[in-house]
Amino acid sequence: MHSALRDIANGNLSTHFGIGSWIGSGVPPGKLVMGLPLYGRTWKLRDPYVNGIGAPALGVGPGDEGTMDYHQILDFNEEKNATVVFDGQTASFYSYAGDYWVGYDDVQSVRLKILFARSRQLGGYFFWALGQDKAWTISRLGKAFDSPSFVK
């Protein structure tokens, strides 16, 4: 996963590890800003029946060189009737349809990452890039922090 909050398998390929490394090296948390991608990476699976995180792939999948904007991912999921999975260990989403697989963030994983940034007292977070959202689905989460129900 290109945007995993946690990486249980390797331990060092995650946002948690990266932010922790900067803080551990002496960078004040308030000087760090965490990026949140509004795009995903796609792969062509070797075997469509082996489709979890880390499944063997033959190469990149649909999109621009194996990359899809968030709005394209939602369209892909709907058009292909893709199976959508939230992976609690990495706090990320992936979907698959046939032999195509895409890893990305959605509302739930972004919410967890924003809570992580706030718990670490980071200087902030940003989305790359707002135009890749669909109808402000993820981008409007910033306003949700004004509501006490956000953390529920």
From TrEMBL:
Pfam family, one: Glyco_hydro_18
Gene Ontology molecular function terms on file: chitin binding; chitinase activity
Keyword Glycoprotein: yes
SUPFAM superfamilies on file: (Trans)glycosidases, Chitinase insertion domain
Organism: Carpinus fangiana
Gene Ontology CC entries for this record: extracellular region
Lineage: Eukaryota, Viridiplantae, Streptophyta, Embryophyta, Tracheophyta
Location of the GH18 domain: 1-149
Similarity-based family: Belongs to the glycosyl hydrolase 18 family. Chitinase class V subfamily.
The protein's name in its UniProt record: GH18 domain-containing protein
Signal sequence interval, chain numbering: none
PANTHER family linked to this entry: CHITINASE, CHITINASE 12-RELATED
Cited PROSITE patterns: GH18_2
